[in-house]
Write a structure and sequence with these properties.
The protein has 203 residues and is of the alpha+beta class. The chain has one helix and seven strands; from the N terminus they run ββαβββββ. β1 and β2 form a beta hairpin. The longest helix is centred in the first third of the chain and has 58 residues.
Amino acid sequence: MQIRQKLQIKKGGSTSIGEVEPPVFVSSSYHGFSFIESMFAVAVLSFGIIAVLPLLTSGMRETFDSRDQLIASMLAQEGAELVQNIRDNNWASDEDFDNNFPGTRSDCTVSHESDEIKNGQDCNGNASHYILKLDGGDYYNHSSGDETKFRRKIKLAFNGFSPDQTLGATSMVIWGGDEFPLEADCNAANKCVYSTLTLTEWH
């Protein structure tokens, strides 16, 4: 027979002993993970990470490719604009239309640091002549600074005779290689971009 006692406090400070509820003990059924369960969880997590890694690598590669293509596109556009700038300066200085353009009309180089298109070894030369370098002022050129992966060449084509002569210019930029493809094969898949323009003789 269980004895239940309870302490009662009476008025005036006296006490009496009555029934007291016995303590109640609750058993727990919770327990930690076993070693096998932990290893299984680690294995599942590892397989998940391995499955995601190729996606992350592919995403990063596509990001870098997009960055390089954007830079190359801007460099190709810059090359074409530098050719136009030479024509404009000729007109402003009352010079001949083809002044500062080389006698050899294809595969030349042009840079912001010069007011002429280079000829001689820079035209029809090997690929090393077309390497673009990045100088301390973050400008691309062919003469000084750290070599980059980008190469640029300029192809010129004069058509007609003065005073109705026109100049077609193609600025081609490649990255990740040394060989310039034909214009028909110049695309992002071949890591190549180009920009063209046609200039007229001002009077």
